[in-house]
User: What shape does this take?
Amino acid sequence: MNTAINPTSIAAPAANYHHAVLVEQPSRWLHTSGVVPTAPDGSTPDSVSEQATVVWGNIAAMLDAAAMSASDVVSVVTYVVAGEPLGPVMAARDDFLGDHRAASTLVTVPELAQPQWRMEVAIVAAH
Assistant: This one.
């Protein structure tokens, strides 16, 4: 149902993602809001690495509630506060997705809605 689109006429993706994902005849879609690094107990870890773990845990819970999994994710948009290390953020995405690849965008921003948030992620999944 979900097909990677990586034309050979353009440069290969710069990391572990596809340039685009074609979704044909999905029966269900899941669009998240920006998923923030607030843990179930209401706390927010200090480091961007720990925040990435919380964000992807929250995404896993949403996918599970929708009877979906990481392999259904077709698009990821990640927002990171400028100056934070990007490596741990990308590693958390890659760890969550495993061998699965989605279309992915990473954007640095001056700040997010809450000062303690150093990153957030929005996904689209199709099944």
In short: The first helix runs from residue 48 to 65. The CA atoms of residues 76 and 123 lie 5 Å apart.
